Amino acid sequence: MSELSLAAIVQALGGELYADSDLRINGLASLEAATPSQLSFVSNPRYQQQLRHSQAACVIVSPQLKDEALLRGACIVSEQPYLYFAKVTQLWRKTLLANASSDDSKRPLIHPSAVIEPGASVHPTARVGALCVIERGAQIGAMTELKSRVTVGENCVVGDRCLLHSGVVIGADGFGFAPDGDRWEKMEQLGSVRIGDDVEIGANSCVDRGALQDTVIEDGVKLDNLIQVGHNVRIGKNTAIAGCVGIAGSATIGAQCTIGGGAIVLGHLHIADHVHISAATVVSKSVSKPGHYTGFFPLDDNASWERNAVTLKQLHRLRDRIKQLELEVKK
Fold it and tell me: Which residues contact 327 (CB under 8 A, 6 or more apart)?
């Protein structure tokens, strides 16, 4: 079982420790589930009650919750508890890896079942999992890890320190077809995909290759599971996108944006830097100013929803009537 002393954590990550520095923890957990030998955190003052009743050995808190935490027991005070806890998880993972068996540490960087075509380039420090396929001309950067069954299409580039989870497809054909009477003629997708450094892409997500120019995912982007990125899309630095988002072709998303789960971004739109889109929102027009945007119809019982939907259909006619009444009043 792996253990870390609180002193070692604070020495590595900073923060103010209010506890016995020799106290050791053997796991990380939520406030509700933590045992007297585990470390937890709280970042929202709304969870003060859970903090009071938590059995955790130590809790990471903000300065605002310091006094409340001390009434309960040991704590580490940090300006950003959630960020601090994220760094603790990284430190914990390093500890687990350091304590791993020598046989595990010597496992091959490239799994024997992986297929790497001639002409592909995989950095010597990259790790390629079982049943991965890396096609000709593709490039995989330093310290990048491909989990099982990842496919990187021809001429696509994945930067350094990236993590692609199981089932990710980089460089599938974009959805391009020209109508020809009753049939469709395929538009060959001649671009590729360029992924920057420190990008993480969740399981079963797909990033399509560009039709002519490349699809681009810039440094630090984080994509959740089951995300569709269409051809010629560009996603700016450090943008984070939650699961089941669909981004249609040629959309441009700025840097430092967030997009909630299940949202849809229509094609050829431009979203500025520092824009935050709520879950399930359909982005049907470009967004030029930073801010938080929401566009969905709230949940209601079905009968009420149907009445509201009928009213919504009448809004245009009601607007015209109001305009006419305003004109009559002015006379």
Answer: none
Q: Active-site residue among 111, 123, 231, 276?
A: 231
| Other Cβ atoms closer than 10 A to 296 | 13
Strands ordered across the beta sheet of 163-164: 127-128, 145-146, 163-164, 200-201, 222-223, 240-241, 258-259, 275-277, 291-293
Predicted confidence (pLDDT) per residue in 142-201, tens digit: 999 999 999 999 999 999 999 999 999 999 999 999 999 999 999 999 999 999 999 999
> Is residue 209 a contact partner of residue 215, using CB atoms and an 8 Å limit?
yes
Strand partners, 110: 128
Antiparallel, parallel or unpaired: β 16-18 and 74-77: antiparallel
Two structure tokens written together for 184: 């469709």
CA distance 223 to 206: 10
Active-site residue, 231 included: yes
Residue 37 structure tokens:
């030998």
Global pTM value: 0.90
* Greatest alpha-carbon span in the chain: 90
Cα separation of 223 and 234, whole Å?
Answer: 13
Task: Return the number of other C-beta atoms located less than 10 Å from residue 98's C-beta.
Answer: 9
